[in-house]
TrEMBL record:
Superkingdom as given in the UniProt entry: Bacteria
Location of region: Disordered: 1-31
Protein name: Uncharacterized protein
Biased composition (Basic and acidic residues): 7-22
Organism in which the protein naturally occurs: Nocardia elegans
Amino acid sequence: MSTTDDNPDRVHIGGKTFERTTETNTTPEEMDEINAAFAAFEQRRKEIPEDQKFHLSDRYGGYDFEGTEYEDYVNEQRRKRHEGGQD
C-alpha cells in the first residue's frame, strides 16, 4: 500500500487507486443492520454440511492478483492447496 505525493488521501492497493474519505453516510443503525446481516450470512455458511462444501476453481476470479504485490502470496496459497489435495 502506498500513497501519492500529491494527494495523501489517495491510496494504491494491488495496482488499484482508492480515495479515503473522512465522511460516511452510514448511520450507526445502518451499520448495526449491515453487521447483523453479515453475521446471519456467516452463520448460514457455517451450517453447510462438510460433504456439501466445495472449492471454486481458480478460473472464477483466481487471477485477479497477477501483476500486483499480492501475486506471490496468492501463488503460494495455491501451491499449498494443490499439495494438500484441496484443488
